[in-house]
Amino acid sequence: MVVDFSAGLRDKDLNDEVSVNDINVLRLSFESIVKVLAPFVPHICEELWEILGHKPGIFSVPWPTYDENAIAADQVEMVIQINGKVRSKLVVPSEINEDDLKSRVMEDQKIIENLDGKKIIKTIVIPKKLVNLVVR
């Protein structure tokens, strides 16, 4: 991934604003990687930290932080089971309510084929993971 990103940077015109943003993202990524690796390979990371242009030692800077909202998934892949056996998968919004999810499951073509003439006894929903239809 880093190799592809750096190769893409090599081919770009460094005068446009997008390229400058790409370089800043790459630099921030390298700095975060060096911070995380520092406890395991301190001597190398200290040298890399200096190469990146920082004067105080790497162990005097805070640990990298993250934004929980940035890593939250907008959509999730739900496994659809019939009697405990996987029959289909659906990609749905992560905040879908249970009734909408059940209706989307019942519209899935694979589920319709597998339910041919069978009666649904119970529907078990585990949010953001799976839906299991118990049938006879």
From TrEMBL:
The organism of origin for this protein: Candidatus Scalindua arabica
Catalytic reaction equation(s): tRNA(Leu) + L-leucine + ATP = L-leucyl-tRNA(Leu) + AMP + diphosphate
Known EC number: 6.1.1.4
Any one GO cellular component localisation term in the record: cytosol
Protein name (Swiss-Prot/TrEMBL): leucine--tRNA ligase
Annotated Methionyl/Valyl/Leucyl/Isoleucyl-tRNA synthetase anticodon-binding domain residues: 23-96
Sorted UniProt keywords: Aminoacyl-tRNA synthetase, ATP-binding, Ligase, Nucleotide-binding, Protein biosynthesis
UniProt keyword Ligase present: yes
Protein family according to the UniProt entry: Belongs to the class-I aminoacyl-tRNA synthetase family.
Enzyme kind, highest EC tier: ligase
Xref: Pfam families: Anticodon_1
GO terms for MF: ATP binding; leucine-tRNA ligase activity
One BP annotation, GO: leucyl-tRNA aminoacylation
